[in-house]
Amino acid sequence: MKKYPQECTPYHNKMVFLYAEHSSDKLLYFLKRADGYDQTAALKFCEQRDLTKEMAYLMGINVLIHAPLFHRLVFAIMH
């Protein structure tokens, strides 16, 4: 990813899906370092798979846009 960042950017959305589906333990690392993915789609993938750390990271980026989902996540964590 760092060696050829422009060449990788078109594949970031697909990579988010693949990490979420097959290697979710590496997804947060990818989300923090990549910037060419659709954050809303990434959040949806994470929500469907209950990836709470990744959801919290993505909502931290767009907390105002995703406020209702953020409140649901906080409630789920606290209870």
Describe the model.
The protein is mostly helical and 79 residues long. The chain is 68% helix and 0% strand. The protein is built from six helices and no strands. It has helices spanning 5-8, 12-22, 27-33, 39-48, 52-61, 67-78. The protein starts with a helix and ends with a helix. The model has no long low-confidence stretch (mean pLDDT 82).
Strand content: under 5%
Form type: elongated
Global Rg: 13 Å
Low-confidence stretches: none
Separate helix tally:
6
**What structural class results from the helix and strand content?**
mainly alpha
Distance linking N and C termini: 38 Å
Helix fraction bin: 55-70%
Give the tally of β-strands: 0
Major sheet attributes:
none
Q: What do the pLDDT scores average to?
A: 82
Explain briefly what this protein structure is.
The protein has 79 residues and is an all-alpha fold. It has six helices and no strands.
Could you name the key traits of this structure?
79 residues, mainly alpha, 6 helices, 68% helix, 0% strand, elongated
SSE arrangement:
Layout lengths: L4 H4 L3 H11 L4 H7 L5 H10 L3 H10 L5 H12 L1
Helix pairs in contact: 2-4, 3-5, 4-5, 5-6
